[in-house]
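Holo prediction — NDP.
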Amino acid sequence: MSLTKQSTAKVRSIVLGAAGYSGAELAVILARNPYFELCGAFASAGRKTQPFSELYPRYKQQLDIDVQPWQDELATELKGKIDVAFLALPHEASEAITPILLAQNIDVVDLSGAFRLKQIEQYPEYYGYAHQHPELLAEAVYSLMEWQQTALPRLISVPGCYPTACSLALMPLVQAGLLADNCVPVINATSGVSGAGRKAALSTSFCEVGLSAYGFFKHRHRPEIEQNLGRKVVFTPHLGNFKRGILATSVVTLNAGVTAEQVKHAFSQAYANKPLVRLLDHSPNVADVAGTPYCDIYWQQDGEQLVVVSALDNLLKGAAAQAMQAANVRFGKPETAGLFAGVFS
Ligand SMILES: NC(=O)C1=CN([C@@H]2O[C@H](COP(=O)(O)OP(=O)(O)OC[C@H]3O[C@@H](n4cnc5c(N)ncnc54)[C@H](OP(=O)(O)O)[C@@H]3O)[C@@H](O)[C@H]2O)C=CC1
Ligand SMILES: CC(=O)N[C@@H](CCC(=O)OP(=O)(O)O)C(=O)O
């Protein structure tokens, strides 16, 4: 195994799952973040070492790093050479590899759902497997950064893509106490096909995908959204025939008498100094957030009924950009470092 040149001045990082969609986005973001150094990129053990630009040809001459097969034994070799590992892996792989990395004093920023839910008994029901590490579930901090109140520890659990879109849309109303007690938010959200990852599957192949709902009541993001909002929701994800982006439409009932000014104040106050949330005066469009680290939010009120529409790029604010945002904060760097290309970086 080889690592690229290291500098003690920068946060030394690796990406596991760098051949996949969200890991690849993260590798690109890390490579342009002046405060971090991308020291290694890894895929599954069965893969041969391959240049990143062979997997993603648009990065030829921009990101010259090899994607190498990951083996757990590498963790020992990396001790003292790497500060943080970003895991863009299937949930169970993340759960298994995390303690191995932590044991070598390597921080973990996990993009999977392995450490998102605080109630361990929800894993069999919503993830289809029993969680083996209650101590790490307790230790992990869930990093919905706009609402993050506490310091980030060595194990960071990055929120899911749909929960980020829905929670950013509804948290201001919850925190301001504007939702009716008996309100069960109804959330319909449509994701582009990259949400399903890069691996080939008939159901997500281009000619098969139209627009359809799935995951009724049992999608793993439902308990995550409920954990964030502190109330039950009806969450129905949809798959649409576009590459990237999520559009979430959340319908709620407000307390009687809540005014338009109160709603506006709740959103403006919540996101006044939050650089990655944009409050719009028109309905969001996934085309305007695809390729950006933003979550766009808009609402319309009719008496006690409120519709909130939010949009983000599932691979960026819904995954890699949010992971970078959290790691920037964890290591004391500017929150948005690496997230904007060119003059905004
Ligand atoms: N896609 C999205 O919109 C979002 C994804 N996420 C989460 O990020 C994670 C990755 O998702 P995504 O990028 O879509 O997935 P992909 O299927 O595109 O990529 C998965 C990556 O993980 C690697 N991998 C799989 N198993 C192992 C293993 N046991 N050891 C080492 N590497 C392994 C794969 O390697 P190889 O290519 O060699 O098989 C591949 O590089 C998931 O947990 C997902 O839930 C989070 C938010 C949004
Ligand atoms: C379109 C599609 O299949 N989307 C995925 C969610 C995206 C993802 O990978 O989930 P996390 O955000 O939890 O990591 C799904 O419904 O399972």
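READOUT: The chain is about 30% helix and 20% strand.
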